[in-house]
Design brief:
Number of helices of chain A: 14
Structural class of chain B: alpha/beta
CATH class of chain B: Alpha Beta
Radius of gyration of chain B: 16 Å
Shape of chain B: globular
Number of domains of chain A: 1
Strand order of the largest sheet of chain B: 1-2-4-3-5-6-7-8
Oligomer: heterodimer
CATH topology of chain B: Rossmann fold
CATH topology of chain A: TIM Barrel
Distance between the termini of chain B: 24 Å
Order of helices and strands of chain B: EEEHEHEHEHHHEHEHH
Largest sheet of chain B: 8 strands, mixed
Radius of gyration of chain A: 21 Å
CATH architecture of chain A: Alpha-Beta Barrel
Strand order of the largest sheet of chain A: 1-2-3-4-7-8-9-11
Number of helices of chain B: 9
Low-confidence stretches of chain A: 306-313, 316-320
Mean pLDDT of chain B: 97
Order of helices and strands of chain A: EHHEHEHEHHEEEHEHEHHHHEHEH
Strand content of chain B: 15-25%
Distance between the termini of chain A: 51 Å
Chain lengths: ~425, ~260
C-alpha cells in the first residue's frame, strides 16, 4: 500500500466566534480575517511539514487547489509543488490537482505540470479534478452548465499536448488554438505522467476513469465509514465493466492522529480536529449546488436513493447528516482515526482492505494543528504505523505510479545554505 | 380556466412545447426565471382579447434538454429566433419577462421585422456594479420564493408538483430550468444587452415590479433609456421579479393597453 502525505494548508487562526460572525469559510470569507504576515509563517510551516513528511519516508506528498477558501491556501498548488521538487529527492509529488476548466488556455496545465515533472526528474502525479462548486462556479465564475463539457475538452487538449509529437491545431467546442506545441515536455512520456481523478460518487466519473485507465480518488473529509458506500459503488461498477480489483485503481483520503496512547492522541488532536470540522467546513449552503453542476443522471440516482450518500458526500456543504463537530462524534463517525500505534495500525489495515484502496492519502495536519504536533504525528506514523501496513496489497502492481529518472541520472540539489552577509 | 392547445416545434433536434389559447391578434409570451411548469392566470387574462402563444425556451419546462446544444449567446439567439418563427409569432406583439424578457429585447433589436410592439417585464441582460442584481443561483432553497415573488406563495404554487407528477423527474425539471437560465446568463445576468438596445425600434413598454428583489427597479430606466424607439416605464405595485405571477391582472392590463 502507498502512504501519501496530504496537506490542505488551512488558515490556522480563524477566530473562536468565526461560525457565529461569518456565514462561510469559502467564497465570501472576509479579507479582514487574513493576516499576510501570519500567512508567511503558515506557508513556511506547511512547506516544512511537507518536506519533513518526505524525509520520514512517505511515498508521496500531496497538494491541492482551492480558491477563496479559509481552509485551503493553495490557489496554485503548482507553486508549492515546484518548491517541493527542489527540496525533496525521491518522493512522488502528487498535485491533486489542477481544475482544468479554470485555465485559459488549458495548455497552461500541460506546461506547468511538464515543468514540475522536469524539475523533479519525473516524480509528478497529475491530478485533474472538475473542482468544487465553490471554487469553480462561484470563486472563479465558471458556468455550471458548461463546466463538465469544458473539463472534458480541456482534458483532451492537455493529453494531446503531452503526447503529440508535432505542432497541431485544436478546434474544440470551447478552445481554439492554432499552434499547440508545449515546451517543456514531461519526462514521463510513456505515454504521459500518471493521471488521477478526484471525484464525488458519480457513476459517470467511475466509468470514465475505467475507460481511460485513470486512478479514481474519493477525497471525502468524512472518513472510511462514510466512504464505504461510495467505494463499494466504485468497485461494483469496475466489476460490471470487467475491470480487475487492483486496489491501486483507487485513492482515498483519511484523517489520522497517532500518539503513544489513545488518551494522549485525544489530548493532542481534539482541538485541531474540532477546529477543522467546526470552522473549516462552515460553508454557506447557498454555494452548495449551482444548477447544472450535478448531472441529471446523478440527480436522478440521488433522488431515487440508490446513491444519495455517494452523491452528497463529496460536497462538504450538503452534509445534513454529517455535522459532527465534537471529538467524540468525529472519532465515532470515523472521520478521524485516533489512537496508539497498534490501534491505528489495525484501523488503517481495515480501511485498506474494506475499501480496497491502495493509495491512502493521509491528512496528518488538520485545522490549527501546530508544526510541532504535525511533525510528531508524522514521525509517529512513519516509524510505528507505516512499517506494519506497507505490506498490504503487495501482490498487486501499481501501474499508476510515477516512473522517475534513475537516481544516478538526476541532478544533485545542493543543500540549502542561508546566505551570510557578503561584507563579512 | 380551460386548457390551452398544446403543440410542439423542434429546434436543434429538441422539442419545444407551444401553448395557444384565445382569439384575436397574436401575442407571444417568453416566460421568466423558472419558466412555466404550468399554465398561469396571467395568460388567461391576456387570452381574453388576444390569441396568446407561449413557446417554451430550451431547457425550461416543455423545452426538454434543448439548452445542452447551446454554448454561446449567438446559439441562444438563433434558437429563440427559430422558436419565435416556428410558433408563428414572427411579426406579432411580444411580451418577455426576466430571462425571457432579455430574449424578447434581443429579437426586437436583431430581427426587427419579428416584433411589432414589445413589452419587457424586468428583463435580464444588464448589470450595474453600483447596484448589483441579486445572485439567483446562490440562494438557500427556502429563500427562493421570496426572491422571485412579492408573495412567496405565488412562486411556490408555480413549482409545486401537480397531482400525479413524477416525483423524480419533476424536481429535476425545476433544476433544469434554473440551469438553462444559468447557461445563458451566468454569472451576472450581463449579456451586454445594452449594446443592442439602441437597435430596438418597436414601441416598448418597460414594466417592473416595485418589490423586485432580483433586479433593482432602477434598472427600468437603464433599459428604457437605451432603447431607440418610443418607450414608457410602468411600475407594478405589490409585485416582485416575476410580476406576472404576483399581479396577473395589472400586468396583463398594462400590456394589453400598450399593444392597443
Amino acid at each position: 500500500m502507498k502512504l501519501m502525505w496530504f496537506h490542505l494548508m488551512p488558515y490556522t487562526e480563524l477566530p473562536d466566534d468565526f461560525n457565529k460572525k461569518h456565514p462561510s469559510v469559502w467564497v465570501d470569507i472576509h479579507s479582514s480575517l487574513f493576516d499576510p504576515r501570519r500567512a508567511h509563517h503558515m506557508y513556511n510551516d506547511f512547506m516544512d511539514e511537507l518536506e519533513y513528511a518526505a524525509e520520514c519516508g512517505f511515498d508521496a506528498i500531496c497538494v491541492n487547489e482551492h480558491h477563496s477558501n479559509g481552509y485551503g491556501l493553495m490557489p496554485s498548488p503548482n507553486l508549492i509543488a515546484s518548491s517541493l521538487a527542489r527540496r525533496t529527492t525521491d518522493t512522488a509529488l502528487c498535485v491533486m490537482g489542477n481544475s482544468l476548466a479554470l485555465y485559459n488556455p488549458p495548455t497552461r496545465v500541460a506546461e506547468e505540470f511538464a515543468m514540475i515533472d522536469c524539475i523533479s526528474g519525473g516524480r509528478l502525479i497529475a491530478g485533474f479534478p472538475v473542482g468544487s462548486p465553490m471554487d469553480t462556479c462561484y470563486a472563479y465564475g465558471q458556468n455550471p452548465s458548461l463546466l463538465r463539457e469544458r473539463y472534458y475538452e480541456a482534458h483532451d487538449l492537455v493529453k494531446r499536448a503531452w503526447t503529440e509529437k508535432d505542432t497541431f491545431a485544436f478546434s474544440g467546442r470551447f478552445n481554439q488554438q492554432r499552434y499547440v506545441n508545449i515546451w517543456p515536455r514531461p519526462i514521463q512520456n510513456d505515454p504521459h505522467p500518471p493521471i488521477w481523478i478526484p471525484g464525488g460518487g458519480s457513476i459517470e466519473t467511475w466509468r470514465w476513469c475505467a475507460e481511460m485507465d485513470y486512478v479514481y480518488c474519493y477525497l471525502s473529509y468524512y472518513g472510511y465509514k462514510a466512504g464505504l458506500t461510495t467505494m463499494n459503488g466504485f468497485w461494483n461498477e469496475m466489476a460490471k465493466l470487467g475491470k480487475d480489483r487492483n486496489p491501486y485503481r483507487a485513492g482515498f483520503l483519511q484523517f489520522v492522529g497517532v500518539a503513544e496512547s489513545r488518551q494522549q492522541a485525544l489530548d493532542l488532536y481534539s482541538e485541531p480536529a474540532e477546529y477543522f470540522y467546526g470552522r473549516c467546513l462552515h460553508v454557506d449552503a447557498r454555494f452548495a449546488l449551482p444548477p447544472g453542476y450535478t448531472t441529471e443522471a446523478t440527480q436522478r440516482a440521488g433522488i431515487e436513493g440508490m446513491m444519495t450518500k455517494a452523491a452528497n458526500l463529496a460536497n462538504p456543504a450538503t452534509k445534513a447528516a454529517l455535522k459532527a463537530t465534537n471529538m467524540k462524534d468525529i472519532v465515532d463517525g470515523g472521520y478521524v482515526i485516533i489512537g496508539s500505534p497498534d490501534e491505528v495500525i489495525e484501523q488503517i489495515r481495515h480501511v485498506g482492505t474494506s475499501l480496497n484502496v491502495g493509495h491512502l492519502m493521509l491528512l496528518l495536519q488538520y485545522g490549527n494543528m501546530s508544526k510541532q504536533t504535525t511533525q510528531y504525528n508524522t514521525r509517529m506514523f512513519a516509524e510505528k504505523v507505516m512499517p506494519h501496513v506497507k505490506d498490504l496489497f503487495s501482490d498487486w502492481e501499481d501501474k499508476w505510479w510515477p516512473k522517475p529518472m534513475a537516481k544516478g541520472q538526476r541532478a544533485a540539489v545542493p543543500a540549502f545554505r542561508p546566505q551570510t552577509v557578503a561584507a563579512e | 380556466m380551460s386548457e390551452p392547445q398544446t403543440t410542439t416545434v423542434e429546434v436543434n433536434g429538441f422539442p419545444c412545447r407551444v401553448w395557444t389559447k384565445g382569439s384575436g391578434p397574436k401575442l407571444g409570451f417568453l416566460a421568466g426565471f423558472g419558466g412555466l411548469p404550468r399554465w398561469v392566470p396571467f395568460l388567461d387574462a391576456l387570452a381574453k382579447s388576444r390569441t396568446v402563444i407561449v413557446p417554451s425556451l430550451p431547457g425550461y419546462p416543455g423545452g426538454a434538454q434543448g439548452h445542452t446544444a447551446l454554448d454561446t449567446h449567438l446559439d441562444w439567439l438563433l434558437a429563440v429566433r427559430q422558436i419565435v418563427e416556428k410558433a408563428g409569432l414572427a411579426g406579432a406583439d411580444l411580451v418577455g419577462a426576466s430571462v425571457g424578457g432579455s430574449f424578447a429585447a434581443e429579437m426586437a433589436a436583431i430581427f426587427p421585422g419579428h416584433v411589432a410592439k414589445l413589452a419587457l417585464i424586468a428583463p435580464f441582460g444588464l448589470f450595474d456594479e453600483a447596484e448589483p442584481a441579486a445572485d439567483p443561483w446562490a440562494q438557500r432553497k427556502d429563500n427562493v420564493p421570496a426572491l422571485m415573488c412579492a408573495d412567496p406563495k405565488q412562486w411556490e404554487a408555480l413549482v409545486a408538483p401537480p397531482e400525479g407528477a413524477n416525483s423524480i423527474e419533476w424536481p429535476i425539471e425545476m433544476t433544469r430550468a434554473a440551469e438553462a437560465a444559468a447557461r445563458a446568463f451566468w454569472p451576472l445576468g450581463n449579456t451586454k444587452l445594452e449594446k443592442r438596445l439602441p437597435l430596438i425600434e418597436a414601441p416598448t413598454l418597460v414594466l417592473w415590479g416595485e418589490a423586485d428583489r432580483v433586479l433593482p427597479p432602477s434598472y427600468a430606466k437603464k433599459v428604457a433609456s437605451g432603447i431607440n424607439g418610443s418607450t414608457r416605464i410602468q411600475t407594478i405595485p405589490n409585485a416582485g421579479h416575476l410580476a406576472y405571477l404576483d399581479q396577473p391582472d395589472a400586468v396583463a392590463k398594462a400590456v394589453l393597453s400598450h399593444f392597443g
